[in-house]
Amino acid sequence: MIGLLQRVTRAEVRVDGDSVGVIDAGLLVLVGVEQGDTAAGGTRLLERLLGYRVFADDNGRMNRSLSDTAGGLLLVPQFTLVAETHKGTRPGFSAAAPPATAARRFDQLVAEAHRRHPRVQAGVFGADMQVSLCNDGPVTFWLSVPPDSK
Fold first, then answer.
1. Is 101 among the catalytic positions?
2. Which residues, at least 6 apart from 99, have a Cβ–Cβ distance to it below 8 Å?
3. Catalytic residue among 79, 106, 108, 125
4. Distance between CA atoms of 143 and 47, rounded to whole angstroms?
5. Which terminal residue of the chain, N or C, has fewer Cβ atoms less than 10 Å from its own Cβ?
6. Tell me: the pLDDT tens digits for 94-112?
7. 2-144: in CATH 3.50.80.10
8. Would you call 93 a catalytic residue per the annotation?
């Protein structure tokens, strides 16, 4: 499972013109689900997202995590993160989990996030979404938990 996290001062996801998720300071995370990803892998990714130190401490160093700051977490499904782009001019998606499996894994990730963190919002799997954000820094990291990871 892949999480492209962006430290933001604000982020929002809209579907059909309606806001379905909005946060102030926190993390916007685009989530890609690969073939073989498990619920346990999603839990591990969430642990990393909540504990990854990307927020400044009193000395201006990235030493605080989302859990430390109690910031917002906006999870957005994005299957294009698992695209194969190493050759040609058109991405391939054979590494992506089938839609039903990916939707289940994403929903499990969101449910677990709600259990572990006070401020969670999410995009809508399979919807045409418009995502807006103000990347703070900019700070962006690619986190990945291999499908066979526990």
1. no
2. 126
3. 79
4. 11
5. C
6. 889 999 999 999 999 999 9
7. yes
8. no
